[in-house]
DNA sequence: CTAGTGTGTATATTTACTATATACAGTGAG
DNA sequence: CTCACTGTATATAGTAAATATACACACTAG
């Protein structure tokens, strides 16, 4: 029983490709541990219908996830979370975090911000953003 | 005498549009104070030749910069840094910095990083990245 | 005032990528 | 075997980035 993915309603006007939003959403799910290794992923058609996107868009997302070793696809069988999908997803998210911090430093310096100000902004963001609860998502369908 | 812009060699394989890279590079220059209000920008053709891109690509970049109030274009005359271009550029860079920090928090949480770890990574990036010297760029040409 | 050379501007075109609809192929249960 | 599910492949429309080429404005030299 594949779960219903936790997706930010797939902003279509965000100029960031739909398939990438799907990739990121799934990486979040897998990284959180809510989808352990071996778990069945939603089928192409199920996810496509659920997100109101094309089947091909889901395929595109799954292709990237398989390329990164997060999931495994088997024709006729289905798609499943890869053995160390969680580790790979977490690793990916860490890389993204470090990269974002580097960009922040660069932009902050350009803006004339002091190091201390950047630290304070980060602290504020940490306080505002709640910790990921790690609670499983309801599996309506 | 328009200056030679400080540009990261315009990575063409980066999937980030050339004109956006140009926009960002110019925002950095203006924000740094190295191009005060009223300074003449490089002409379309000069910049295009210098960066080995099309004239249209430069036009596109300048359009966005004018829209954001960083520069002013005058047909037949040239393009110049807007009255409060520096302030606007700095404001933009600050927004980018805050946004990057927010992304970093999100990704870091997904990666299972503790708040303290994120702070430490930021400190490391701050230490590694040198302060912007604010020194003018050599104006060959 | 009339080139002429600089400036920015506009149009048509090529290319790459996103997203789609439709048809094809493998797997297992009845 | 047949059916209903899975993933796969091909051809197509729409959008955006980047280009070449031709056009319009402004100052200056003569």
Question: What does this 3D model show about the protein?
Answer:
The structure is a homodimer of 141-residue chains. By secondary structure, chain A is mainly alpha-helical. Chain A has a single domain (1-130), classed as Arc Repressor Mutant, subunit A. Helices cover 54% and strands 6% of the residues of chain A. Chain A has helices spanning 18-32, 44-51, 55-67, 85-110, 115-128; strands at residues 71-74, 78-81. The first copy, chain A, has a two-stranded antiparallel sheet with strand order 1-2. In chain A, a hairpin with a 3-residue loop joins strand 1 (71-74) and strand 2. In chain A, helix 1 packs across helix 3 (55-67), helix 1 (18-32) packs across helix 4 and helix 2 packs across helix 3. The radius of gyration of chain A is 17 Å and the shape is elongated. The termini of chain A are close together. Chains A and B meet through helix 1, helix 4 and helix 5 of A and helix 1, helix 4 and helix 5 of B. Chain A binds a DNA duplex (30 and 30 nucleotides) through helix 3.
Strand and helix layout:
Two copies of one chain form a homodimer.
Chain A (H helix, E strand, L loop, with lengths): L17 H15 L11 H8 L3 H13 L3 E4 L3 E4 L3 H26 L4 H14 L13
Antiparallel strand pairs in A: 1-2
Helix pairs in contact in A: 1-3, 1-4, 2-3
The structure holds a DNA duplex (30 and 30 nucleotides).
Distance between the termini of chain A: 9 Å
Instruction: Estimate what percentage of residues of chain A fall within beta strands.
Output: 5-15%
- The count of domains of chain A is 1
| Order of helix and strand elements from N to C terminus of chain A | HHHEEHH
Number of strands of chain A: 2
**Highest-level CATH class of chain A:** Mainly Alpha
Spatial strand sequence of the major β-sheet of chain A: 1-2
What spatial form of chain A do the alpha-carbon principal axes imply?
elongated
Helix content of chain A: 40-55%
């Amino acid at each position: 029983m594949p779960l219903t993915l936790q997706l930010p309603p797939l902003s279509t006007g965000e100029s960031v490709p739909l398939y990438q939003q799907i990739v990121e959403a799934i990486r979040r799910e897998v990284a959180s541990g809510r989808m352990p290794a071996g778990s069945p992923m939603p089928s192409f058609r199920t996810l496509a219908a659920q997100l109101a996107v094309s089947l091909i868009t889901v395929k595109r997302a799954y292709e990237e996830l398989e390329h990164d070793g997060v999931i495994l696809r088997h024709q006729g069988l289905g798609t499943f979370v890869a053995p160390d999908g969680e580790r790979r997803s977490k690793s990916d998210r860490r890389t993204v975090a470090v990269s974002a911090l580097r960009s922040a430093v660069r932009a902050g310096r350009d803006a004339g911000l002091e190091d201390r100000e950047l630290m304070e902004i980060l602290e504020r963001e940490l306080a505002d953003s709640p910790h990921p609860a790690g609670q499983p998502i309801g599996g309506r369908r």
